[in-house]
TrEMBL record:
<keyword id="KW-0812">Transmembrane</keyword>
<feature type="compositionally biased region" description="Low complexity">
    <location>
        <begin position="293"/>
        <end position="303"/>
    </location>
</feature>
<dbReference type="GO" id="GO:0005506">
    <property type="term" value="F:iron ion binding"/>
</dbReference>
<dbReference type="GO" id="GO:0016705">
    <property type="term" value="F:oxidoreductase activity, acting on paired donors, with incorporation or reduction of molecular oxygen"/>
</dbReference>
<keyword id="KW-0472">Membrane</keyword>
<dbReference type="GO" id="GO:0004497">
    <property type="term" value="F:monooxygenase activity"/>
</dbReference>
<dbReference type="InterPro" id="IPR050196">
    <property type="entry name" value="Cytochrome_P450_Monoox"/>
</dbReference>
<dbReference type="InterPro" id="IPR001128">
    <property type="entry name" value="Cyt_P450"/>
</dbReference>
<dbReference type="InterPro" id="IPR036396">
    <property type="entry name" value="Cyt_P450_sf"/>
</dbReference>
<keyword id="KW-0349">Heme</keyword>
<keyword id="KW-1133">Transmembrane helix</keyword>
<feature type="transmembrane region" description="Helical">
    <location>
        <begin position="12"/>
        <end position="29"/>
    </location>
</feature>
<comment type="similarity">
    <text>Belongs to the cytochrome P450 family.</text>
</comment>
<protein>
    <submittedName>
        <fullName>Cytochrome P450</fullName>
    </submittedName>
</protein>
<dbReference type="GO" id="GO:0020037">
    <property type="term" value="F:heme binding"/>
</dbReference>
<feature type="compositionally biased region" description="Basic residues">
    <location>
        <begin position="325"/>
        <end position="339"/>
    </location>
</feature>
<dbReference type="Pfam" id="PF00067">
    <property type="entry name" value="p450"/>
</dbReference>
Length: 339
């Protein structure tokens, strides 16, 4: 036993390195063996699917959506509707579903909690407790607020708004074509989308395509500096990007809140009925509960001095599904790969 006792710092370092190496090898073997009998593209013992994905990504433009990579993998290797990607140690393991029936099993019949990566990715862009990354009671509350606004009948009423803004977009493209001016299609299309969303939400134009919109610039800065703060490895760069992101988010929040209050006061002062869904904006449908006549128990003028207080969202629970699991029928009709 005395021979295993380190006699110097060098020996101690060598022993520690040997133990770490042995631990890494054991973990590598155990991790790679997990995928042995699972559906997957060609798998490397040393690299998993990192090398394979590294060959696919350069085939497409930068910042391409990952769904394009996964679709290419599925088509190239004729993979089934569900397969695994082993990205260890650089990323989490991924279960890719390309079959609609399989997707229905995990999004409708049994709604599983969203991955924590959703919150990590979206928080710098839209702050915490957003509907895209929330689970459990928080998701249910946000869903109940927003779902009436996205009913098919209400979306159908927005076709005229989309057509008007798209015609303005076409006129802009025609003007660029006549002058042969070089322009950014991404920036021009962003103004179109922003105006459509703004008109659908607030019922009045935001004029990004005509006079420009400071709110659109703030949202673009939130996206730009949010990504930079998340991906940069330089502390000073991260600090500067995070400071600019917070400043832009503060300006955007103030602008949006002012529009919400402006719309609320307009509906209240004009005594506009919100009982019908026709010709209402998304914001009108969200504010419907606030515009209903108060009950007798809420007649105290001091009980709620702010007509539009911030909703108190419950604390998120990361492993709580949005919908309670349905009782499985006696006949298991799930897809064989999900049984």
């Amino acid at each position: 036993m005395a021979s295993f006792i380190p006699q110097s710092s060098l020996q101690l370092i060598l022993y520690v390195c040997a133990v770490c190496l042995l631990y890494g090898i054991v973990k590598l073997v155990k991790h790679r063996r997990f995928y042995k009998d699972l559906p997957k593209p060609p798998h490397s013992f040393l690299f998993g699917h990192l090398k394979l994905l590294g060959e696919i990504i350069p085939l497409f433009p930068p910042n391409c959506h990952p769904q394009v990579w996964y679709t290419t993998l599925a088509q190239k290797y004729k993979l089934p509707g569900i397969f695994y990607l082993d990205l260890w140690p650089l990323g989490p393991a991924q279960l890719i579903i390309t079959d609609p029936d399989l997707a229905d099993q995990v999004t409708v019949l049994r709604s599983y909690p969203k991955h924590i990566e959703n919150e990590i990715y979206l928080t710098p862009l839209v702050d915490k407790r957003n509907i895209a990354a929330s689970n459990g009671p928080t998701w249910k509350l946000l869903h109940s607020m927003l779902s009436p606004a996205f009913a098919p009948s209400n979306i159908k009423n927005l076709v005229g708004v989309m057509a008007d803004e798209t015609m303005m977009f076409c006129e802009t493209l025609s003007r660029y074509a006549e002058t042969n001016e070089v322009f950014s299609m991404e920036q021009t299309a962003a103004k179109l989308i922003f105006d459509i969303v703004g008109k659908a939400v607030f019922s009045f134009p935001l004029n990004a395509q005509t006079t420009g919109s400071a709110c659109l610039k703030d949202l673009q800065e939130i996206l730009k500096y949010g990504v930079l703060a998340r991906e940069s490895k330089i502390p000073l760069t991260k600090f500067r990007a995070e400071s600019r992101r917070k400043a832009a988010m503060k300006r955007a929040d103030a602008y949006i809140e002012s529009k919400i209050r402006e719309r609320y006061e307009y509906l209240k002062s004009e005594n506009i009925s919100v009982a019908k869904k026709n010709a209402l904006s998304i914001l009108d449908l969200i504010l419907r509960d606030r515009l209903q006549p108060p009950s007798s128990s809420n007649n105290n003028p001091n009980s709620n001095p702010d007509p539009l207080p911030r909703p108190r969202l419950p604390r998120p629970r990361h492993h709580e599904p949005q919908n309670p699991p349905r009782r499985r029928p006696r006949h298991d009709n799930r897809h064989p790969l999900l049984r």
